[in-house]
Design a protein that fits this description.
Layout: H1 2-11, E1 31-33, E2 36-51, E3 54-58, E4 63-68, E5 75-76, E6 81-86, H2 88-123, H3 129-161, E7 164-166, E8 171-176, E9 183-184, E10 189-195, E11 198-205, E12 217-221, E13 231-244, E14 247-253, E15 265-281, E16 285-288, E17 291-297, E18 302-306, E19 308-312, E20 321-326, E21 333-335
Antiparallel strand pairs: 1-21, 2-11, 2-15, 3-10, 4-6, 4-9, 5-8, 6-7, 8-10, 11-14, 12-13, 12-15, 13-14, 15-20, 16-17, 17-18, 17-21, 19-20
Helix pairs in contact: 2-3
Length: 341
Amino acid sequence: MWHWLSILLISLGLIAKPAPHVSPRSAEIFTYDVHDGWITDEKPVFATVESTNIVPARARVSGTVAEVNVRQGDHVSLGQQVAQVGDPKLVLAVQAATARMEAARAQLGQARADFRRAVGLMKADAISQAAYDAAKTTFDVASKTLAAQTALRAEAEQQMREGRILAPASGRVLTISATAGTVVMAGDSVATVAVQNFVLRLEVPERHARFLAAGDRIRVNGADVGLGSGVKYGTITLVYPQITNGLVQADATIPGLTDYYVGERVQVWISAGRRRAIVVPSSYVFTRDGIDYVRLLRKWGAEDVPIQRGLPHPTPTEPDGLEILSGLHSGDRLLKPLYGD
């Protein structure tokens, strides 16, 4: 009678079905020692990919945009030309400065010749000291005038060179606010460049703010951020001290996040507190007749015992970690089930 009752209970899943006898000595390489430890409860939140700095490329002179050399999404390096501003008045200013410089050079040549003549006449006592001093002063004034006109032409040429709008940093062009033919003033922004140091900017409800701290680990799906398949881990680098609309902002970095769509939303798992729990590799858990089991290694062999599984808890050391809510105790030893169990 007890035999038939055991068969009935096993069929109903009320008691565990014993596993075939397995020698513990032959199964050492397939065993796992159960222990409890601290785990971090994780909460999914959304983050946006942001640049640490978004800097504008501004015009340094007023004029008309002659050409735009980049497009939205292009990568630029520091000092690369983004656009060119042209001003006809600058061309005229350079021409006028060049003409004044040539006139000053001619005056200097005449003053030099008069001064040399005055030097010779002075040696022969043929002219007065006043005439000599006047020739010397005229030569000095002509020299200074040529230097001043040369500087003025250099200034006009520099203003023409400043018509080149350069990238203020290496990064990615986000927006372009001008086209060829657009009139701009000095200081107007023609394009914005996102610096290549991208971060994930999280927005966390304020009730979870006390669990956030710089240095905490975050977890993302690598495919969501263009880093391939699998789980990727990052680190919170900054928690902003201000709460806005019930949300706390924080920045996190992930190695390799260097080229992505700025503003893209990504799901991120963050810490929401710590507690003690039992986590085992999911490969040691199998399901039979709708009930989850683990194979517990005993002194006399192995026994399949039912357990209640919790949520996955992947870690860098246990990427397939699974929380066990009941059925196991610290110190138990599990035997990895064979294929087909």
